[in-house]
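Please check our next protein.
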Amino acid sequence: MIEIKLEPSPSSCIETVAKREYERVLSMLLKGDREDRRLEEELELLRLFLESADFGRLRSISEDLLLDGRRVEFILKSTDSLPGYEVGIKDYKET
């Protein structure tokens, strides 16, 4: 099972953070000399998420928490059921 943590901020929404992570993982794969199965699985998980997530709803959830002074973390986990992933949300009060 693959797990990816994405942390939006007031200046970068969850969709932007996911796109940046996708580009980072893709760049690592393209620079690599050999196959890296874990990175390939991470790239696929991010692709599925970017293609099918309801970013309007996710942005709404995270923006409300961020405006309340909380730190937000989305946790993507691969699954065998459609759409191929599940999303968990953690929030932490900034101190």
Remarks:
- The longest strand covers residues 70-78.
